[in-house]
Amino acid sequence: MGSLDSHYEEENSSSNTANPLNPEEFRRQGHMIIDFIADYYQNMEKYPVLSQVQPGYLAKLLPKSAPNIPEPIETILHDIQQYIIPGITHWQSPNYFAYFPATSSIAGFLGEVLSTGFNVVVFNWISSPAATELEFVTMDWLGQMLGLPQSFLFSGVGGGVIQGTTCEAILCTLVAARDQMLAKVGRENIGKLVFYGSDQTHCALLKAAKVAGLESFLCATIGTTSTTAVDPIRSLSEVTKEYGMWIHVDAAYAGSACICPEYRHFIDGVENVNSFSFNAHKWFFTTLDCCCLWVKDPGALTKSLSTSAEYLKNNASDSKQVVDYKDWQITLSRRFRSMKLWLVLRSYGVENLRNFLRSHVKMAKRFQQLVESDNRFEVVVPRNFAMVCFRALPTRLKKEPNGCNIESGNIEAKLIDQEYANDFNRNLLETMNASGKVFMTHTIVEGIYVIRFAVGATLTEDKHVIKAWEVVQETVDDMLATK
Ligand SMILES: *Cc1c(COP(=O)(O)O)cnc(C)c1O
């Protein structure tokens, strides 16, 4: 009966390799995972928002190598509860106010499940026509919701594409802009190209410029990452027009808000720009990753990014009647991301989506009022959306810290005072985050250390915002008491 080896292999393959896509087993395990996540959402507030583990904690807890024999899902879920959850920073916690939100929803989650269920690889139209065409439909719907002009939509001459992240969206438009300009001025002038942003532009621009080489390109931001400041698109676009320069609008966070008529004015002038993007995976109930990018001239993108290979050739592509999204992005393979966006749009509807966003803004306003009502604190920059930048004012907490006073007019004294204030606020933030009760993050604006309070987790309610403010006040009280 053959050698020992082949006998062993035969036996192993017959007994242990159940079909990894057995529908009944999928049903059983799928229900368990959904229950697990539902319990996780229900019990979320029991966990510290910011993970409290130390670097390297996990390798100590897990085996040194992968298991040789299959393990049941029950054991794996047990280990997730035991070992993984402590190392999770809970972005969906109602007490999460850090960075920007990653607003989840049932529709976003289940849309993700559906697209993963199909697991199609959508590089060209023929590889799954519905995936490409659903992307057209949802991007046009969303473009209309934002009041983008016809020139950005498929129903006009432009078009939208779902990228993974803003970094990718900026890189793609940067490369298109570079090649458009080089076609005008000649390849030999590549060294003379420049790109513009402000000191508040996201570092994604620098990264993209590094990958692509310098560009004739301007990146304007609606809702900067540090403080949600807004660049004036209309006046910037007048300058870029004069120089034939590509202008991209990065509205990664704040773009969502512009579906509300009262915030639409922030993107006035968008009809004059070349491209516009926002992250549906930030503040739009869609799971990571889902960056929506519209361009007026899709041909500029495809000129720079298209590839052709014999093994991808097909009649539909040759007919030029279809869009092959592989030519609108960096990667070749792409996920069926429009499914989750479509589910979000259909499950909630435009008016509800607006109201969700408004409720977050309202909670941020509430927090702002609380800050303003306590003269030991200040709001550092004007609030535009659902994020409040604030700090404690140690000069008011303590009459003369380090013997100096900000009112003294002495520049040196002012600098020492600033340093003292920055240290105080850094300590305040670290103490609050270490408590596990809330998670906020910081930025530095013109030398001032600022605490950012970003509302947008789907489970957050008024009471969480009020509790967060109490945590701020109590921490400051404690810090002063122990001075
Ligand atoms: C978050 C953010 C980005 C980066 O987005 P990714 O999708 O992570 O690349 C870029 N710009 C702004 C203004 C942002 O807020």
TrEMBL record:
Q: Which residues carry this modification: N6-(pyridoxal phosphate)lysine?
A: K282
Mind listing the GO biological process terms from this record?
Answer: amino acid metabolic process; carboxylic acid metabolic process
Q: Which domain of life is it from?
A: Eukaryota
Gene Ontology terms for molecular function = carboxy-lyase activity; pyridoxal phosphate binding
Which PROSITE patterns is this protein grouped with?
Answer: DDC_GAD_HDC_YDC
Its GO CC terms are: cytoplasm
Alphabetical UniProt keywords? Decarboxylase, Lyase, Pyridoxal phosphate
The cofactors it requires, by name, are: pyridoxal 5'-phosphate
Region named Disordered = 1-24
Q: What is stated as this protein's family in its record?
A: Belongs to the group II decarboxylase family.
- What's this protein's name? Tyrosine decarboxylase
